[in-house]
Specification:
911 residues, alpha+beta, Methylamine Dehydrogenase, Chain H, Immunoglobulin-like, 5 domains, 5-stranded mixed beta sheet, 7 helices, 62 strands
Length: 911
């Protein structure tokens, strides 16, 4: 517990600077949040900033976590759950924990979990001491000094102690909080406002200040140097350093609608307005006060001021839509077209080094020289007719080489003595509509245009800004400071960039209300609308007062913003945030992923920029601009890490950022096991198909082989033997013819003819047996009857019988049975020399039986006569029977004929 207490002081080890102590209270930037902005309640008792960068505010209705844009409220009904929503004190520990004193006891919030304090009394005393509770207060100031306070007074212990009493020096009647910032300034909160002590000087809030009269309960300086203020009824406030100071009617200007500004020889500021004349102001010591207001009542031609120019003598020229004025002391002179002006609408003025005056109007450019008594001694006129690019004249400057540059709406003209040279877009100018000019000591000139950025004249040619986005800028005025920066008044506000020797711009920064500007709009169609005074300050005319900036004391936020991932949602369901590992698992089937993040910079939260990447899916960073949410849809299963980085308002990036890892689980059909199983199944299917194809091919091959064997047997047993016999008979015939035995030769020829007819008959028989397999439309009994009938003739009688109920068999079975019958018929007719052939087909219950019987010569079973060499009849029948799983029985005896019985079991009939 002691270690935890020691760690409480380590929170701001890497903090940035504090508020600029010399800035008046009224000039700090302000912002406030109340219940209408998201606070659960307007009483803020305690403030703390944890190591992760979040700001915490304790109210009577819950603990509030603030990221600069949105609030998260924790109370007795939230997750995580607090014992009470009444928050009394807060203390941020160096280990990232937040100690919370509630109405129901002390708890610790760490890593999203709330736990009760182990040593509540010790922590409570430290917590309440940090919040300023107890009998007294103490704060350490600069140079080793300190301040102490009671409820009624504050004592600053310096070389000469100073006591500030409530109700006298301090506002209100009770001191409630004492706070010393890192610059050594002392902030004192009372029951009626806020006071600031610095270097022996006490400053109180103005009576018109929003915090005046508010009961201040808590003060906190965050790591960027902003001061947070918790009040009793006014909610949460912040004081920020502002880069720009607004000067308007509150500071004495005649009107906030300023149009043009310049500085006279005495260092006074002359400010033209749109309808309220000219205000003459004195600026010194950070304070601006109005000395004089000059209007039509004092002799101005109009209260609408378009241009200003100061002489070295102290006189100031004032251009209006109705003529020209010269103010010398209390005297106001007037000039119009009757006095030689080309037009009364005076758009721009330039006092030259020789004291002469250049006057830009809608109808040309006039040049007046003056006599010693101040009267106009010489007049010259430049128009489009004598070489000027256009009669509508705008800004004018004299460059370091002596040339006079004149901006017009049709291009740019340079007058060098009597010579006029014109430049347009064709010469490299960014645009023909020139709106602003800035001469540099090196002889170059920066040229601002309308909606086309700017160009730089280097003495010989123009170069135009290359950045595509900046080339669309609408430039209204250009100023240079002493730190190598260019400042631009544009249609989108005031901007700054690092100046180079070309028109290129690096580190472009735009400024708006978050930087102290009352408006982004700047003055237009008046010259000069911006001015750099002798003290180096820059002044810009806007429709809401002057904007002043001191480039030498321009606060730059060098603190990279901490980044937090605030929400991880999958299909709109919040997931537990884990940033250390990939233990967050998302089940398969989810499609929509949402990441909400925040860059914790409170200087200008609306200007924080982001970039993010989903490692494992994205190949590069996505520039999100100021968007604080990233969306992904339909990402494939896998391990991912979402990374986000943030840059503060000055472009300083936190390159470490924040990361969140998770795993999207795959469906089973998306896993490697599924693909392996699928590959195995495909391989198995291929093997099965190959085996089946091989079996079919083997069966077909066997069938073809068997048929070839049968044909070979039939050819051998019939045609071949017949041809041999015929050959022998023809040789005998030839011998008889040679011997001239006509009668014997005639008989021999008749015998040869008989052998030929017999051979043809046997060939027809074989062909019929081949073609009979195509008779698939007829039944087995029909084909058997035809085969039996076809075997008749030549002294052979055939008989066919059918028994039992017919049932169709498998086509292969019927084919093989037919072949067996044909073979048996052929053998009985050819080899057995039978006179009668009987064929019987029996359809029995358990089998189908085929019997072929003849009354031929028969043979001895088992002898060579049963299957002589070169004869394959019985062998083929046995092969066919085996092919269909049937049983073949052949019975025979010499002189008793032969019986062939084929039995097909019922189990094989359909196989």
């Amino acid at each position: 517990m002691r270690a935890a207490l020691l760690a409480l002081t380590a929170v701001y080890a890497a903090a940035a600077g504090a508020l600029e102590p010399t800035t008046p209270l009224a000039d700090y930037g302000r912002q406030a949040w109340v219940m209408e902005n998201g606070l659960p309640q307007n009483t803020v008792h305690a403030l703390a900033q944890t190591r992760d960068g979040f700001l915490w505010a304790g109210t009577e209705a819950g603990l509030v976590r603030f990221d600069g844009v949105s609030f998260l409220v924790l109370d007795e009904h939230s997750q995580p759950k607090l014992p009470s929503g009444d928050i009394r004190c807060l203390l941020a520990a160096g280990d990232g924990a937040l100690w919370i004193g509630t109405g129901e006891g002390l708890v610790q919030l760490k890593d999203g979990a709330v736990t009760r304090a182990e040593d509540g009394d010790q922590i409570a005393r430290a917590c309440h001491a940090a919040a300023g509770d107890g009998d007294g207060f103490r704060a350490a100031l600069a140079n080793g000094t300190a301040a102490t306070a009671t409820r009624s007074a504050v004592t600053v212990h310096a070389a000469k102690p100073v006591t500030l009493t409530a109700g006298k020096e301090l506002p209100g009647t009770r001191v409630q909080v004492l706070y010393a910032d890192r610059e050594g300034s002392l902030w004192i909160g009372t029951n009626e406002g806020l006071a600031h002590w610095r270097d022996g000087r006490l400053e109180r809030l103005a009576a018109t200040d929003a915090l005046e009269g508010e009961s201040v309960l808590a003060l906190l300086e965050d790591r960027e140097g902003n001061l947070w203020i918790g009040t009793e009824t006014g909610g949460l406030h912040i004081l920020r350093d502002t880069r720009f100071r607004a000067v308007g009617t509150r500071e004495g200007l005649a009107s906030d609608a300023t149009t043009t500004v310049t500085e006279d020889a005495a260092g006074r500021l002359w400010v033209g307005t749109n309808g309220a004349g000219v205000s003459v102001m004195q600026h010194e010591g950070g304070r601006t006060r109005t000395l004089r207001v000059i209007t039509t009542r004092e002799g101005l031609m109009s209260d609408v001021i378009l241009s200003l120019a100061a002489e070295k003598s102290g006189a100031v020229w004032v251009g209006t839509p109705d003529g020209l004025n010269r103010v010398r002391g209390s005297r106001v002179e007037a000039f119009t077209s009757a006095d030689g002006l080309p037009d009364d609408f005076i758009r721009s003025l330039l006092v030259d080094d020789d004291g002469s005056l250049w006057i830009g109007t809608r109808r040309g450019l006039a040049h007046w020289s003056f006599a010693a008594n101040g009267t106009v001694a010489k007049r010259a006129l430049y128009t489009h007719a004598n070489g000027l690019k256009s009669d509508l004249v705008g800004a004018m400057v004299r460059d370091a080489r002596g040339g006079l540059w004149v901006a017009t709406l049709a291009g740019l003209s340079r007058i060098d003595g009597e010579r006029i040279r014109n430049y347009t877009h064709a010469d490299g100018l960014a645009s023909d509509v020139v709106t602003a000019l800035l001469p540099r000591a090196d002889g170059s000139v920066f040229v601002g245009t309308q909606e086309n950025g700017w160009s730089r004249w280097d003495g010989t040619r123009f170069t135009t800004v290359k950045d595509a986005a900046l080339r669309e800028a609408n430039v209204r005025a250009i100023l240079a400071d002493g730190a190598n920066h260019l400042w631009f008044a544009t249609a989108n506000g005031i901007a700054r960039c690092d100046c180079t020797m070309t028109a290129d711009c690096t580190r472009w920064m735009e400024f708006g209300p978050a930087d102290g500007l009352r408006s982004r709009e700047t003055a237009t169609n008046s010259h000069p609308s911006a001015w750099r005074t002798r003290d180096g300050h820059l002044w810009f005319a806007t429709p809401r007062g002057l904007a002043e900036v001191d480039p030498a004391h321009f606060p730059v936020n060098a603190t990279p913003p901490p980044v937090a991932i605030e929400r991880f949602a999958v299909d709109d369901l919040d997931m537990t945030l884990r940033t250390a590992d990939s233990s967050t698992r998302v089940e398969a089937g989810h499609n929509h992923f949402q990441f909400a993040y925040a860059g914790l910079s409170f200087v200008a939260p609306q200007k924080v920029r982001y970039r993010y990447m989903l490692e494992g899916f994205d190949h590069a960073w996505t520039d999100a601009g100021t968007r604080r949410v990233a969306y992904y849809t339909n990402i494939p299963p896998g391990r991912y890490t979402f990374r986000v980085q943030a840059a503060n308002n000055d472009g300083v990036w936190n390159t470490e950022g924040a990361a969140l890892s998770f795993e999207l689980r795959p469906h089973f059909y998306q896993t490697i096991w599924f693909y392996l199983l699928l590959a195995a199944m495909m391989a198995g299917l291929v093997v099965v198909l190959l085996r089946r194809r091989l079996l079919v091919a083997e069966r077909e091959f066997k069938a073809v082989l068997n048929e070839r064997n049968r044909i070979a047997r039939e050819i051998h047993d019939t045609l071949a033997q017949g041809y041999v016999g015929i050959s022998v008979q023809l040789e005998v015939l030839a011998e008889l013819v040679r011997m001239n035995k006509q009668d014997a030769a005639q008989k021999q020829l008749d015998a040869v003819r008989g052998h030929v007819r017999e051979g043809l008959a046997e060939a027809r028989q074989s062909i019929w047996a081949l073609r009979s397999q195509d008779a698939g439309e007829t039944t087995l009994p029909v084909r058997l009857r035809r085969a039996t009938e076809h075997a008749a003739g030549h002294g052979v009688e055939t008989h066919f019988a059918l028994h039992g109920a017919f049932r169709a068999l498998h086509a292969d079975v019927e084919k093989e049975m037919l072949r067996v019958a044909q073979e048996a018929l052929h053998n009985g007719k050819k080899h057995a020399r039978a006179r009668n052939l009987w064929v019987q087909l029996d359809y029995e219950q358990n089998e189908v039986a085929l019997e072929v019987r003849d009354d031929g010569k028969g043979f001895e079973a088992g002898s060579e006569a049963a299957s002589p060499p070169g004869h394959y009849g019985l062998t083929g029948m046995r092969e066919r029977a085996a092919a269909i799983g049937a049983r073949l029985d052949v019975t025979s005896a010499p002189g008793e004929g032969t019986t062939v019985r084929l039995r097909v079991p019922a189990a094989r009939e359909e196989q």
